[in-house]
Amino acid sequence: MQAETGCEIAGPEEVRRAAPLDHVLVDGEAVRLGETTFDVVLSPGHTLGHVVYHAAEDGLAFVGDVIFALGCGRLFEGTPQQMWDSLNRIAAWPEATTLYCAHEYTASNARFALSLPDADEALKAHAEAIFAARERGEASVPTTVGIERRFNPFLRARDAADFAARRALKDGFKG
Q1: Is 0.90 surpassed by the pTM of this model?
Q2: Which terminal residue of the chain has fewer beta carbons within 10 Å of its beta carbon, N or C?
Q3: Which listed CATH number (3.10.290.10, 1.10.10.60, 3.40.50.620, 3.60.15.10) goes with 1-104+141-170?
């Protein structure tokens, strides 16, 4: 693509393992896509070099595999503490912030969330709405920070140890 377009290849340092970079992105750096300015948010946990792009002014973020609607990514390279810290950075944003995640796993994530002891009536109603939307062929993403603070079982964890226990349960969940 670079040979055909002359584009610059930018990414976190970790990407050098797989591809050459013209520019290494650092936490807090601003990048532009068209008229939108995004802050680079290094978000290790899923992978060591995972990056989130947050456009605070526009109230949106592309969060990749750090957080999903009612879920989060597996820990392929990072530690539970790294993922917990990354999730909490996102959770600290305004509740109206729209989160665009990389996968539509919401129904499966809802089944897992419902299996946990802290599932409440509000979560059950939210899950039922998700199941109905998916049956109609409707997407359940994007989501918002506010919705995830309320219902995401990984953001409902008390601390990194509780997060790690929940992630281990999810990794073996067959529901």
Answers
A1: yes
A2: N
A3: 3.60.15.10
